[in-house]
Amino acid sequence: MSHRFTDVDAVREGLSKVDYLCDSGLAGVVYLADRLDKPVLVEGPAGTGKTQLAKSVAEITGSRLIRLQCYEGLDEARALYEWNYKKQLLRIQTEREADVEWDNISTDIFSDEFLLTRPLLEAIRATDPIVLLIDEVDRVEVETEALLLEILSEYQVSIPELGTMEAVQVPLVFLTSNNTRELSEALKRRCLYLHIDYPSMEREKEIVLAKVPDITENLADQVARVVRSIRRLELKKPPSVSETLDWARTLVLLGVQHVDADVAAETINILLKYQSDITRAGKELATVEGLDA
Amino acid sequence: MGDGGQGSAVTVADHASGIGAVGSLPVAAGDPLLDLLNGFIAELRAVGIPASLTENLDAMEAVKHIPVEDRDTFKYALAATLVKNQAHWKAFETVFEVYFSLRGAQYEITEDDLEDVTDADGEIAAEGDRGGSGDMLSPEELAEMLYRALMRGDAEMIRAAARQAVRRYAGMEPGRPVGGTYYLYRTLRNLDLEGVLERLMDVDQETEGDVDDFELRLRRDTYELRIAELKRQIEAEIRRRLVADRGVEAMAKTLRKPLPSDIDFMHASREEMASLRKAIYPLTRKLAARLVRKRRHGRSGPLDFRSTVRHSLSYGGVPVEPKFRHPRPHKPDIMVVADVSGSVAAFARFTLHLVYAISSQFSKVRSFVFIDGLDEVTQYFEGTDDIAEAVHRVNTEADVVWVDGHSDYGHALGVFWDNYGNDVGPRTTVLILGDARNNYHAPESWIVKALQEKARHLYWLNPEPRSYWDTGDSIVGEYAPHCDGVFEVRNLRQLEAFVDRLA
C-alpha cells in the first residue's frame, strides 16, 4: 500500500502550507497514523484546532472529508447504515402481484440497492482517498462507543444480511474528544493518542499572523503575550486559539496599534466568557507582581 | 492493567502469531533499542501507566518509522502509542528522559562531561572561589551568561547556561547516594533566580522609562516562564548526569514521579500541589457527567402495583405488562465538617473543592471547618462560581482557632453539636474529614454516636495511611465504631471513588 507522506517534515510542511502551524510532535503522530494505519484520538481543550487538523490533513492529501458528528443518542442507524424500509415495502408490494417466492424477495430486499449508507460505512466503501472525522466522540454513551471498535481496528463493517464489508482503501481516521468523560480502554487501545494543548507564545503569534490579515507584527506579538499571561491564571475557561484570533481581528478593526491596560480591559470579554474569569483577569493583570518567581 | 509484567507479555506474544507485528519480535530481540524500549515500558507500568500488550507492539512498530535522533518527534511518537491520558504525561516525560536522555546528538555525554563529574570531587571544597578549569566559567561570567540568556529567551543559550550552572554549582560526585533534589537545591541556591528576575525587571524599567504596569506584568510573565524553563533544563541536566553515573534502571526508580491521581495529599510538594489543582477540574467535570448519567440511566424504581393492575384490565386481568415507579434517587444533604489544621489542610481543601464542584448532585451542601474552634463556611461558597477563590477565603477568613490552634476534635465536635446539631436530620449525610490527631484532648466520641443516630449516614475520611491510624495521638479508633464507614483517602483516586459512592 502506498503511503500518503514520505516523512515527518513532509507532514509539517504540508500542514503549514494550508496555514495549519504545528510542531514536530503533532506532525510525527499524523505521520505514524499513516504508516501504522491507525486512527488518531485527538484530545485537548476546546478551540485548539482538533477538528481543523482533520480538515487540513484532508486538504493536503487531496482526500474527501467524511464527518460523523457525535451526540448523545447516536445509534447504528445514524452512524453505520440503515435499511431503506419504505423502498423495501414498495418492492414487496409490487412483487405481490407477480406472485414471486418469498425467498427471492427476502434476498432481494436485503441487497445493496436498499442500503442507506451512513458516514462510517460510506468511509469504508469509498474508492477515493478518505479522511474520516469522528467529532466529539466523548458525547456518545459508553455503549455506543462499541459501534466504532470494529471499524477502528479492522476497517470493516459487518452487516448481518450482507456479510462483512472491508475497506477498499484504509481511510485516515481522526477522533476528537473534549475530554468530558473518560473514553473506554478498548477505544483508546485502538488509537494513537494526541493531546493538542494551547500553542506556545511564538507559535500563537505565527498563527495570528497567518490567519488575521492586515495585522502588524508588533500587535500580533502583544496579542500572543497577553493571551499567554491570561492562560497562566487559574480560570474556568482559558481563552482558546479561536478566541485569540477573534480578539486580534477585533483589535485590527478598532484600529488599535498598541495594547495597553485600557484596551485590554475594554475588549477582554472577547477572550473570556465567564464574568468571574473577566473580573479575575482584570484584577490580576493590573498588578505587576507575578504569580510566582 | 498496569501489573502485567514483561514476562507475561512475551509469552502471550509468542502464541499470538496471527498479528503482523509479533512476527518481527523474536528477530528484533537483540536490537539494543528494543531492549531499551522493553525496560522503558516495564518502568512505565511500574509508575502506574497502563501500557497494554497491543500498545507495546504499536510502540515497537512506531520506533521503526521515527528515527531516535529526532528526539522530540520520537518522544511524541512513543507517547502517542503508550500514554493515552494527558494526566500521565509528566510521569511519562520523566521516564523518557531517564531512558533516552543519553540519545540524540546534542544530548550525548562527552568525554569532557564525564571528566567534569569526576573533577567535581575536588571542587566541592573549593566551591565559590575557583577560577575555573578548562572551559569552566567563573561565577560572574556564569551569572552574566544566565542573565543574557534569560533576557533574550534563546532556548539554546538557556540550555547551555543550565549545563554550566550544574557543572559549576551542583557538586555532583560519582556514586554519591543522594537524590536529584539535593543537587537541584544546591544549584538553585547559588543562582539566586529571584535576584536575577528583579535585575531583569529593573533594567527594563531603566532603559524604557515610560512602560505602564500592564506592560511590566507581561514582561514579568515572560521572564518567569523563561526561568521556569531554565529550572526544567537544570533538572534535566542533573538527571542526565545521574543516569550517566549510575545507569538507567537505578535512576528510573529514584526519579519516579507519581501520577497526579496518586499524589499523597499530606506530602505533596509545591509543584505537585499545582498539578493536583490542575487535575481536579477535569476530574470534577467527569465525575459530574458520570453522576448525571447514573441518575438518568438508573434502573427503574420498584413495582407500581396500582398501575400494573390498571393496565392489566386491557389484557383481561392478566398482568402482562408490569409497570414500575419512576426512580426517584434521593439527593443527599451533605454536611462537611473538615479539620483544616496544618498537616491535613490540603486534604480538606481538595475535598471541599470536589464536593462543591458537584454540588448540583446534592440537594444541599453545608460546610464547617475547625481546628480547635469551629466555623460555618457555607456562605463563602454561596453566590460565587469561583470555588478556588472560596476555598482560599475559607483558609484566610474562617474563625477556627479557639485556644491554641492545635486540633481539638472533642471541642470542635462539641461546638458543632451545640450550634448545628439540630440541623442534622434523617436526610443528612455527615462527612467528617481529618486525621483524628487530637493532641491528647478528650475525644467526646459520644457526639459522633449521637450524630450518627440522627443522620442518614456519617462517614469519616482520614488522609493518613491506614497503618498510621491509632498511633501516637491519633484516635480514629475511638470514633470509628460510631461511623457508618471510615475511609482512607490519601489521593485523588481514593477521593473520587468515595464521592462517586456518596452521590
Protein described:
The complex is a heterodimer of chains A (293) and B (503). Chain A is α/β, with parallel strands linked by helices. Helix content of chain A is 49%, strand content 14%. Chain A has helices at residues 8-17, 24-36, 50-61, 76-79, 85-98, 102-109, 119-125, 142-154, 185-190, 201-211, 217-232, 241-253, 261-267, 275-285; strands spanning 40-43, 64-69, 81-83, 115-117, 130-135, 156-159, 163-166, 172-177, 192-195. In chain A, helix 10 (201-211) packs across helix 11. The mean pLDDT of chain A is 85. Chain B folds into 3 domains: 6-105; 109-259, no CATH class; 330-502, von Willebrand factor, type A domain (Rossmann fold, 3-Layer(aba) Sandwich), CATH 3.40.50.410. In chain B, helix 10 (155-170) crosses helix 13. Chain B is globular, with a radius of gyration of 29 Å. Chains A and B meet through helix 2, strand 1, helix 9, strand 9 and helix 11 of A and helix 5, helix 6, helix 12, helix 13 and helix 15 of B.
Write the layout of secondary structure elements.
The complex is a heterodimer of chains A (293) and B (503).
Chain A: H1 8-17, H2 24-36, E1 40-43, H3 50-61, E2 64-69, H4 76-79, E3 81-83, H5 85-98, H6 102-109, E4 115-117, H7 119-125, E5 130-135, H8 142-154, E6 156-159, E7 163-166, E8 172-177, H9 185-190, E9 192-195, H10 201-211, H11 217-232, H12 241-253, H13 261-267, H14 275-285
Parallel strand pairs in A: 1-8, 1-9, 2-5, 5-8
Antiparallel strand pairs in A: 3-4, 6-7
Chain B: H1 6-15, H2 20-23, H3 25-28, H4 32-47, H5 53-65, H6 71-82, H7 89-100, H8 111-123, H9 139-152, H10 155-170, H11 180-191, H12 193-207, H13 213-246, H14 248-255, H15 270-296, H16 305-312, E1 333-339, H17 345-357, E2 364-370, E3 374-376, H18 378-381, H19 387-397, H20 409-420, E4 428-433, H21 445-454, E5 457-462, H22 476-479, E6 485-488, H23 492-502
Parallel strand pairs in B: 1-2, 1-4, 4-5, 5-6
Antiparallel strand pairs in B: 2-3
Helix pairs in contact in B: 4-7, 5-6, 7-14, 9-10, 10-11, 10-13, 11-13, 12-13, 13-14, 15-17, 15-23, 17-23, 20-21
